[in-house]
């Protein structure tokens, strides 16, 4: 279908002619799920981080009471181990997903994009692995 523009005609995309036409559905929904993950993980991170900051910085004397014994007592409870592990994993995955989007937006070459994403994945796995290891193997009895 053609439409006149200042005496000229041009071909219009079909999507402009019928805005309610069904959109092309692709089999890859990764970006949709990544977008949803960012929203939900962000909300959960707000709760986890503000809870962490309130407990660590404001209650029972604040920062002055934080020492090795405090951390040992806190990580003796599976609840606090799970809290800190969840905060670590969500922060890494949320930040990594955001940085992946930045890499997609600004890396011009496919090869550069690939290596930056590979470096990002290695860094995320390393940090989550070491952090998880520390949380689960923390020994308050240093000899």
TrEMBL record:
Q: From which residue to which does the signal peptide run?
A: none
- Name any one GO molecular function: metal ion binding
- Determine the domain of life of the protein's source: Bacteria
Compartments where located: Membrane
Under the heading Gene3D superfamilies, the entry gives: Fumarate reductase/succinate dehydrogenase, transmembrane subunit (1.20.1300.10)
Spans traversing the lipid bilayer: 33-59, 114-136
UniProt protein name: Succinate dehydrogenase
